[in-house]
Amino acid sequence: MAGFDALPLSAQLPILGQVALRATQNYALPPGLEVVLINLSENATYRVEAPDGRRWALRVHRDGYHSKVAIASELVWLMALRDQGVVVTPRPVAGRDGELIQMVGHDDLPRPRHVVLSEWETGAEPGIATDLTRPFEVLGEATARMHRFTKTWARPTWFSRPVWNFETALGAAPHWGRWRDGIGVDGERAALFGRTVALIGRRLADYGAGPDRVGLVHCDLRLANLLVDGDAVKVIDFDDCGVSWFLYDAATPVSFYEDDPKVPALIEAWKAGYRRAHPLSAQDEAEIPTFLMLRRLLLVAWIGSHAQTDLARSMGQPYTDGTVALCDDYLTRFG
Questions:
Q1: pLDDT digits (tens, 9 = 90+) for 145-162
Q2: I need a surface site. Which of 42, 47, 240, 295 has the fewest CB within 10 A?
Q3: Residue 248, H or E segment
């Protein structure tokens, strides 16, 4: 794997594109397909389009990020959410062999990659420049339905997803790298961020991790993973789903623009929608700023460890710069 990882992105992309094209042969799809990369993050996601206009989404998983069991767990959960009418999620497509997870190799890769094909969901990503009040209310209600469902859903005995807690987000075993390695984190900022991280840890320890506060959640409900289709808000990309605080899902919708002046009103809209399907205690509401701060610092770490992606390049050091004022405010309010 070191050989592939050592290649520049310009050399990696053609290899991944060939894997995606080969993968389409594993499904009962029409000839003449167009396969176009639409997102590169942990995985490479492609739009597959037939000459007659039908579309699918194909995801080539990053090597070693999730096991086959973890991917199968993601799929069984999102299918349960859809089948039970909780929220609209992508519908996975089985290959010719009946399997939802395909294995596709390439001479320049040491191991085959996991590949998943899903039906294409209509709708558009909501933009931060638009009025998001109504979408955030709908999203809050949909999130509450997801939380309510997972509290009683009987997971398969083999079910396995990552745990997103303090240690795996900002602590000693971070999934997305160390916040200290974020772009532009110098000594002064490391000290400020460190004080913020310590306060987050203390508050989360007080908040607790009982079954009423921790469960299976999406973990990445940002705008890029939502599709607004009329009055419906559809949820896509469950790749980061795992066990975490339910209220972490309140922070992810404002990912990458947590300092926007509209955020407080959007959080209020989200809470109003959430209460329609599930109660929010006063302590839950009081801790939402902590989850916003945790998410912000987690994304500082993600940008530092994913510097070659378009999203990380577009954020860069200005994102770290903007985090300083948020830390100062959080420490002033809660320290």
A1: 999 999 999 999 999 999
A2: 47
A3: helix 248-251
